[in-house]
Design a protein that fits this description.
The complex is a heterodimer of chains A (117) and B (113). Chain A has 117 residues and is mainly beta. Helix content of chain A is 0%, strand content 50%. Chain A has no helices and 11 strands. Chain B is mostly beta strands and 113 residues long. The chains are: A mainly beta (117), B mainly beta (113).
């Protein structure tokens, strides 16, 4: 199916384990984003990518690693999960550099609910 | 100072009311602005883009004030189905030459019968 998909939808992991959240989009969008959403904080940007092999930090990058070897995939890895990383994670993609508000909608995946115990 | 700020609400209004949300942003070089809607436990979805001249889509009107660096969303004749969280979103240029999409914390709207 076309669109943007995240996997897994739900994940429970133990403190200290490495976890990778997957994000795949079929539109060949150049921009991709990872956010976490916590009560009282809204969506906070973790990392974003402007194109394959181009990534940059957002507001809360500590403890996370990203890669983008292919345009369609943007995995997010928690190198050593902590309880503070319990959250809902959203991946998004956008077709163009967002400078023109027309036709620059960012599309979101359905989210991954991660619980670190 | 946060890059994008909103009043978290909640705004409790009766059906048929008019309600307005405001949002401020800190980076004067920002060029693109949006309002997203998020329903409970769902992903955010674009409600409307915000253009310099202001724009309207049915009961929804968005306006941009660049001088004061704020964006507004007006909802007229509120419906029960308008109950959701409304997110102000700003495209912020970075010193690397790219752009990042930054969200406000969202304003929760509750429309009651």
């Amino acid at each position: 199916d076309a669109g943007i998909t995240q996997s897994p939808r739900y994940k429970i992991t133990e403190t200290g384990r490495q976890v990778t959240l997957m994000c795949h989009q079929t539109w060949s969008h150049s921009y991709m984003f990872w956010y976490r959403q916590d009560l009282g904080h809204g969506l906070r940007l973790i990392y974003y990518s402007a194109a394959a092999d181009i990534t940059d930090k957002g507001e809360v990058p500590d403890g996370y690693v990203v890669s983008r070897s292919k345009t369609e995939n943007f995995p997010l890895t928690l190198e050593s999960a902590t309880r503070s990383q319990t959250s809902v994670y959203f991946c998004a993609s956008s077709r163009r550099p967002l400078m023109d508000p027309r036709n620059t909608e960012a599309f979101f995946g359905q989210g991954t609910r991660l619980t670190v115990v | 100072r946060k890059e994008v700020e909103q009043d978290p609400g909640p705004f409790n209004v009766p059906e048929g009311a008019t309600v307005a949300f405001n949002c401020t942003y800190s980076n004067s070089a920002s060029q693109s602005f949006f309002w997203y809607r998020q329903d409970c436990r769902k992903e955010p979805k674009l409600l409307m883009s915000v253009y310099s001249s202001g724009n309207e889509d049915g009961r929804f009107t968005a306006q941009l004030n660049r001088a004061s660096q704020y964006i507004s969303l007006l909802i007229r004749d509120s419906k029960l189905s308008d109950s959701a969280t409304y997110l102000c979103v700003v495209n912020i240029p970075t010193n690397t030459g790219f752009q990042k999409l930054v969200f406000g914390t969202g304003t929760r709207l509750l429309v009651s019968p």
